[in-house]
Specification:
three-stranded antiparallel β-sheet; alpha+beta; 1 helix; 86 residues; three-stranded mixed β-sheet
Length: 86
């Protein structure tokens, strides 16, 4: 097994979360939130959560894609979902 690089996700508060520390992702009141292994809750998207299930699928696929990208380029990747969710 090769070196595993880290993927960070930007939050709306401009902090970064290591995606490997996310234990739950959910939609609530027009937001998509995550809870991390240290029990902090962060908002990663705010806006209409119409089609919430599809937006959650986009989040999960973007995380998976970012992990593959980080392995391919041999460096960390910062995932900014605000560019991918509308």
């Amino acid at each position: 097994m090769g070196i595993v690089y880290t993927v960070y996700m930007k939050t709306l508060g401009n902090s970064r979360i290591n995606v490997d520390h996310i234990i739950k992702i959910w939609c609530d009141l027009n937001q998509i939130n995550v809870i991390t292994s240290d029990s902090s809750i962060e908002t990663i998207f705010s806006g209409t959560t119409d089609y919430a299930d599809e937006k959650l699928d986009v989040v999960l696929s973007q995380i998976d894609e970012a992990k593959r990208k980080s392995e391919n380029i041999g460096d960390l990747v910062i995932l900014d979902l605000s560019k991918n969710l509308k």
